[in-house]
Structure formats: C-alpha cells, structure tokens
Design goal:
The complex is a heterodimer of chains A (411) and B (369).
Chain A: H1 8-34, H2 41-53, H3 78-92, H4 94-99, H5 104-113, H6 116-123, E1 134-137, E2 153-157, E3 160-171, H7 173-177, E4 183-189, E5 199-205, E6 211-216, E7 227-238, H8 254-289, H9 305-332, H10 338-362, H11 364-368, H12 374-381, H13 391-403
Parallel strand pairs in A: 1-4
Antiparallel strand pairs in A: 2-3, 3-7, 4-5, 6-7
Helix pairs in contact in A: 1-3, 3-8, 3-9, 5-8, 8-9, 8-10, 8-12, 9-10, 10-12, 10-13
Chain B: H1 8-35, H2 40-48, H3 69-82, H4 84-91, H5 93-103, H6 106-112, E1 125-127, E2 143-147, E3 150-161, E4 168-174, E5 184-190, E6 196-201, E7 212-222, H7 236-268, E8 270-271, E9 274-275, H8 280-308, H9 314-339, H10 350-358
Parallel strand pairs in B: 1-4
Antiparallel strand pairs in B: 2-3, 3-7, 4-5, 6-7, 8-9
Helix pairs in contact in B: 1-3, 3-4, 3-7, 3-8, 7-8, 7-9, 7-10, 8-9, 9-10
The chains are: A alpha+beta (411), B alpha+beta (369).
Bound molecules: flavin-adenine dinucleotide.
C-alpha cells in the first residue's frame, strides 16, 4: 500500500544522525575544506565509537538469510535506512561522510561478491579495535567509465595471486591501504582475452608489500575525503583473497560489479540529497530572515523569480528523493532495481548539482563568499554526478533497459 | 512506513482503466480532436466504470466507496494516457458531485446526488477559472455578495467544461476577497437562472475535443440554500489541492503516452542504416523522459497520500502540479522531436499531445480526484 510516511522510530534515529551532522561535522566542515590533507582524527575516533554501538546494517540484496517460516518476516529495510541516514550525514558534510572509518565501497564489494566465510573474515574488523577503512579500486589511468577495460592483472603463482597495475581515484585509499588495518578491494583481470568475464575482485590487506599509495589528489570539493593513486607492483596476496570464484564464466564476475552498483547508486543519490538539502535549508532560512515569503498556491504568473527558483529547487530535490527511496525500497523487497537505481543516481546527481549552483546564485555576494558553506556545497555536490557512473553512463543504462538493448546495441 | 506498492485493488483498477484507455479511448482521441466531438457511446461506457457514481453514498444509489486521492491519481493517469480531453469530459460531473458529497449539507446531498447514480452519463460541472492572465485561485474576482437571505453573483468565468449540457453547475466566488482561499464559497447555480449566460464554445490550441465555455454572471441571484455546506461553507483550498493532484496525474498519463509512442517509433525508424534509438542523442532523450515520468508520478502520489492522511497537501500538490506542467510540455515536445518531421504531421498523435500538454500551465481546477 502506497505510503510516504516515516514512522516515529525511524524519525528518532534520523534525529540522532542529524545531531552527529550538526555537532560533529558542521563545526569542522570549513576547516577540513581549507586544509585538504589534514586528518580530523578526533572526528574519526568519535564516529568509530558511534558506529561500533550501532547495529550493523547490511546493504544490497540479502541472499544469505533464509526466511524463518515460524516467524512473520519483518520487512527488510536496511537499504532504505541507509539512504535515509546517508542523506542526514551528508547534510552535515559529504566529504567527512566519505572519510568516516567504515568498510565503504570495499565492504559493499565483499557483501556483493564474497562467500559467507569471506564476509565474516574481512568485515569483522570493523566491529573491533581502532578505526579502519575499506576502499574499492576499479578506476585506472587508462579508463574510468569503461570498467571492462581493467588492465591491472592478477596472475596465479603457486599459493599466491600476483597483482600488477595502477589504480587511481580510490576513495579512502590512503586510509585503507596505509593508515589503518583496513583493506582495498582491487579489481583485476585474470584473463585479458576473456574481457569482462575475466575481471575479478581481490582483497589486498593494508601494508601488503608491493602495494603503495603514490599520490593523493587535490580536488574541487569533498576535500575531507582522500582520493588516492595506488600502485600494485608484484603485489602478492593469498589465493583465498579473491572474492567469490576464480573461475572465468561467461556471465562471470562482472555481474558482481553491477550488483554492487544496484546498492551503491542509491547511496550516492542519497549523498547528493544531503548536500542539496543543506543548501535548500540554508536558502529557506535566509529568505525567512529577509522576510521573503514563499507563496504556495498562488497563480504561477504572480510568483517572483526567487520564489520560482526556490520552489524548483525544492521540488527537484523531492523528486530525486522519492526516486532514491524507491530504488532502496526495491532492494529491501527483493526486486531487481538496476533501472531504478540508475534513475535515482542520474536524477539526484544532476538535480543537486543544479540546486547548489542555484543556491549560490540566490544568495548573491554572500553565496559566493567562503564565510558560509553554500559555495562549498556547490563544489561538494558535483562529484555525485561523476562517480558511481557519470550522468551519461547512468543514462546509457536507463536507455538500454527501456529500449531493451544490449551494450552492443547502445554504447 | 515507506511503501511503493499499489494495493491489489488499486492494481486491478489500474489494469482495467488502463486497458479501457488504451483500447477504446486512444483510438477515439484523434477523430475527437479533429471533429470536436466525443462519441456518446464512449462516454456511456466510461460512465459504467463508476468514476463518478462510485463515490456517491449508497443512500443515494451510489457505490459508497471510500475515496482515496492516491487511487484517484492512478485512475486519472490512466485516463490521461488515453486522451486528456476525453478524460476531463468523463470526470467532469465529479466537479459538481464531489464537493457536495464531501462538504454539502444533507439537503444538498439529498437533492443533487441521486442523479449521478443512474445508468446514463449525467453532465454537470463547475466554474472555477477566470479569463485573466494572472488568474489566481486564491484571489477569485467573481464575487458573491450577500443580499437578504441569499447571494448575488457577478463576474466572468472561463474553461467551464460541459456548461452547455449541464443543468446545474457549481460556481466558485469570493464572499470575502480579503481572506484568500478561505473567503471562497461554492454556489449551486442552475444554468437557466436569470443573469447566467453561457458563451459559444471556446476555441483553444488543444483540448479540442473538450467542450468548454465562458460563463457570465450578471446580478445572478441564488438562495442561501445554494451555498455548498450552508453557513459552514467549503474548504476551497482542499478542493483545489485535490484538483492539482488530478491535473498532475492526468499530465503523467500524457507524458507516458508521448514516451511510449516515441520509444516504439525510435526502435523502428532507421536513419543512417540503424534505428535512431541506438544513437545516444535520441536514447538519452528517451531515458530522460522515463526518469521524469517516474519522478512526476511519485510527486503526485506523495501529494495524494498527504491528502488521504487528512493533511491540506497545499504545498505538495502545488509543487507537483507545476512540476508536471513543465515536464509534460517538455516530454510531449520531446515526443514530436523524436519523430522529426513526421511528428509535426497530424497523422501521428504527438503534436496533439504537445498542444494538450501546453494547457497544464494555463488550466486549473477543472478535474478532481
Ligand atoms: C573524488 C572521486 C572519487 C572516486 N572514487 C573512486 C573509488 O573509490 N573507486 C574507483 O574505482 N573509482 C573512483 N572514482 C573514479 C570515478 O568512478 C570515475 O572518475 C568515473 O567513473 C568517470 O571516469 P573517468 O573519470 O575516467 O571519465 P571518462 O570515462 O573518461 O569520461 C569522461 C566523460 O565522457 C563521458 N563518457 C564516457 N563514456 C561515455 C559513453 N559511452 N557515452 C557517453 N558519454 C561517455 C563521461 O560521462 C564523462 O562525461 C572516483 C573519482 C573521483 C573524482
């Protein structure tokens, strides 16, 4: 039954996330932006302590748990709760959100492609000890969107896989590879002639000899998050650190990348929502202080340009939000959501890019000033239209689905 | 708790109305647009669905269904997918009946609702819009002045659907212009009343199959019992929110019509040796259309949900309707563009959808859920 209401429990949970945003992120937001590679260790510690206390929410399709017939199945809501909390935290600061110690995209890959044993083995560290990070490395200097072009190789050598290649733009790569007891999921090909089917995910533990962080990027926004180049040079890892099977099947490992995206694209969409709402809330409060009323219900031909712009920002954000909730809800209810996940990501990425740009415009000289955070949100927002599939890549995916075309027919 | 699934009943309604729209309304749409007339048998068939009578209380021979704006939005979308003119026509009697069901006095219900429970289409309508560029629902200029026991109505209305064939209509007028929405009342006015003039049929860019008229009220006197809801009056803001939800839902239907047609065409039509849909410039237009349809539909459902929960839904329905007014125009324009020169020719329906969709920014208040 159609329902758009969040129940009180969930709203309470979200209030807690909101407090984290307000009290732990916003106060250091500007400073972390101005001092790009400085690490807010106190923030890491607090977030780590907080997340250890929280229930471990698992995203993606849950294939591991068999329903218990004796109990009425409680509806699964992990993905919905994840997009809700992500929005709330990115309202605080999207860069800090991405720099939070957690399994990150590496964890999502383990969940999507790992065996039950691997999930246990690689993820349990996130519930104990000191702050840790997980990261995922697909992108290379030679490609970004075309992830079938992976050139990093994994060669079997006795009891080891040997990895060779260069990965770039790895979010939290430095923290995962060198500055904590984390890991990096590296996508490499076991058989270049097999194309996509030969591409497999491997766990590379922190400080594995042969893996080094050679560069950390300077960026337009989300500066609190490190974006690393990782070189793998004769990097040896145990055989059982390939996630899932080593067998090269026609429909093989690449499906796992796609399955990961089904779960992570709504999250990126939710990140965008958080940044967009930050800007919208700021503009709303600002207009109120200036006694500029937003008059809902009057003739559209009597609206001022400011009212029109504000309402457009508001409705675009809500449209993106509803698409995002739907994509997450589909995962929770076991429905295939690749189309809807891409719709949410494409809509939210673009909408929030435009919303934050408009927010700077509406505030005039104040909007452009680094005294307030709105200009930063505009810079932060843009990444959501780029990573986890650019706007264009998501449009291709949507187009293929609605037209029933293969990647050969439309690319 | 967040849920995007229709109930079984809603799914059934969607399927059956959808099939009717696709199989029977759609084929009639172009001829109706050209001739300006909607075939009576089609209207009669639509009547059988109980779009109007369903919500009439059992006491007056109706279905006594609990109304839901979400379900109403689902129905409106399907009908809009069939044809916008025909949809507004077959739903028009609601404009008169629903406010009386919801907000009328017992006497008004007893007097006016039975006519909607019969086997035949009962034309009825409401006069909401006014012929000014900045026409504003919250600042109506048609006035109702108290005079003794009754009221005197003055002013001009436009876009009154089916006015010429409706015996009675509901005329919205400001009893207290300073109060905005709260100062508006609805009056039951017989078409034959003194001071009422119904114009020639209006001629518009689109919605050509829908008969709409201007209405002039010159010192038109009605009794106190003509005021819907008596002294309690009506909640005009709510009525208009319901209308916005209906229009927005109709718009989603039009968007979907344009999308499906353009998508299918693009897979068939070849240029430079390949289907045009395999070119990104076309594929991305179609992908964008698909996103916008879903986005708009969810905004509409959310606004409808707010109304069903008893909220005023003012902001949500306003934003959703304005969103659809823009997107429906954009998507129907895309529809023409994807078909190229062929889209400009009246052989194909896309140009009609573009003309119809332009209406969403101009028209308010003449459909409801
Ligand atoms: C801050 C940041 C963090 C990142 N984090 C990670 C991470 O953690 N792990 C990781 O593996 N990667 C990460 N990335 C990489 C990111 O996913 C890629 O940058 C992205 O996929 C785009 O790839 P590219 O930069 O090589 O652009 P390209 O693929 O070179 O694309 C350039 C332009 O061409 C367009 N384009 C490409 N192909 C097509 C096509 N077929 N049709 C139409 N247009 C096309 C694109 O949309 C884009 O506009 C990150 C990037 C950034 C900037």
């Amino acid at each position: 039954m159609i329902d758009f209401e969040l129940e009180p429990q969930v709203l309470n949970q979200l209030k807690m996330y909101h407090m984290v945003s307000e009290q732990m992120m916003r106060p250091i937001s500007r400073d972390c932006d101005e001092h790009e590679h400085q690490k807010p260790t106190q923030f890491y510690e607090s977030m780590w302590a907080a997340s250890a206390a929280a229930a471990d929410i698992q995203i993606g399709h849950d294939k591991s748990k068999k329903p218990d017939a004796s109990k009425p199945a409680a509806p699964r809501r992990a993905n919905l709760l994840t997009v809700l909390s992500t929005e709330e935290l990115c309202w605080g600061d999207a860069g800090l959100y991405l720099s939070t110690p957690n399994p990150g995209l590496g964890g999502a890959a383990v969940m999507a492609a790992g065996t039950p044993d691997q999930k246990e083995r690689f993820l349990k560290r996130f519930k104990e000890g000191k702050p840790k990070w997980g990261a995922m490395a697909i992108t290379e200097p030679g490609f970004g969107s075309d992830s079938s072009a992976v050139a990093t190789t994994a060669t079997r050598d006795g009891d080891n896989w040997v990895l060779d290649g260069t990965k770039i733009f790895v979010t939290a790569g430095q923290m995962a590879a060198e500055k904590s007891d984390g890991f990096v999921v590296v996508w490499a090909t076991v058989d270049r002639s097999a194309g996509r089917a030969g591409i497999k995910p491997f766990i590379v533990e922190h400080n594995t000899p042969g893996m080094s962080v050679t560069r950390v990027e300077n960026k337009l926004g989300i500066r609190a998050s490190d974006t690393a180049m990782i070189v793998l040079d004769n990097c040896r890892i145990p055989l059982d650190q390939i996630l899932g099977s080593a067998e090269v099947r026609k429909e093989g490992g690449f499906k796992d990348v796609m399955a990961t995206f089904d779960a992570t694209r709504p999250i990126v969409a939710a990140m965008a929502l958080g940044v967009g709402r930050a800007a919208l809330d700021f503009v709303r409060d600002f207009l109120k202080q200036q006694n500029v009323a937003i008059r809902y219900g009057i003739s559209p031909r009597r609206l001022t340009a400011v009212e029109r712009d504000f309402m457009e920002m508001e409705v675009q954000l809500q449209a993106a939000r509803l698409l995002t909730w739907r994509a997450a809800w589909m995962l929770d209810t076991g429905k295939r959501n690749s189309l809807e996940a891409s719709m949410a990501k494409a809509k939210a990425g673009l909408a929030v890019t435009l919303i934050t740009q408009k927010a700077v415009e509406l505030l005039g000289p104040l909007g452009y000033s680094r005294k307030i955070l709105v200009e930063k949100w505009m810079r932060d927002a843009k990444i959501n239209d780029i990573f986890e599939g650019t706007q264009q890549i998501n449009m291709i995916i949507i187009a293929r689905r609605i037209l029933n075309y293969s990647s050969k027919e439309l690319n | 708790m967040i849920d995007f699934e229709l109930s079984e009943e809603q799914q059934m309604i969607r399927d059956s109305v959808g099939a009717f729209a696709r199989d029977e309304i759609r084929p009639a749409a172009r001829p109706a647009d050209e001739s300006g007339a909607i075939p009576a048998p089609l209207v009669a068939k639509a009547w059988q669905f109980g779009f109007v009578s369903g919500a009439i209380p059992e006491k007056f021979g109706g279905g006594g269904d609990a109304r839901s704006a979400v379900t109403g939005a689902i129905v409106a979308e399907e009908l809009g997918f069939g044809d916008l003119s025909i949809a507004i026509h077959v739903l028009a009697p609601r404009l008169f009946a629903y406010p009386i069901v919801d907000m009328g006095t017992d006497d008004q219900r007893a007097k006016y609702l039975k006519r909607f429970s019969g086997a035949d289409f009962a034309a009825a309508t409401a006069a909401v819009m006014e012929p000014r560029f900045d026409f504003d629902l919250s600042a109506l200029q048609v006035s109702a002045r108290r005079d003794g026991g009754g009221f005197v109505l003055n002013g001009a209305k436009c876009y009154v659907p089916l006015a010429a064939e409706s015996d009675s209509m509901l005329v919205y007028a400001a009893t207290d212009a300073a109060k905005g929405f709260a100062g508006v009342d609805g009056f039951i006015v017989p078409r034959a009343a003194a001071g009422v003039t119904v114009s020639e049929r209006e001629k518009n860019m689109g919605l050509k199959a829908l008969a709409t008229y201007e209405l002039t009220l010159k010192d038109c006197r009605v009794g106190a019992d003509a005021r819907v809801g008596g002294d309690k009056g009506i909640d005009f803001s709510r009525l208009m929110s319901q209308s916005r939800v209906a229009f927005a839902a109709l718009g989603v239907g039009v968007m979907n019509a344009a999308f499906e047609y353009a998508r299918d065409y693009a897979k068939e039509r070849k240029a430079f040796g390949v289907p045009i849909a395999t070119k990104q410039a076309i594929a991305f237009i179609l992908a964008d259309m698909a996103i916008e349809i879903d986005a708009a539909r969810l905004l509409v459902w959310e606004a409808a949900f707010k109304l069903d929960k008893g909220g005023d839904g003012l902001r949500e329905s306003y934003l959703a309707k304005n969103y659809v007014a823009q997107s429906a125009l954009k998507l129907t324009d895309n529809g023409v563009q994807v078909l190229g020169g062929h889209g400009y020719i009246r052989e194909h329906p896309v140009e009609m959808w573009l003309r119809n969709a332009r209406g969403f920014s101009a028209i308010d208040g003449i459909a409801t859920v």
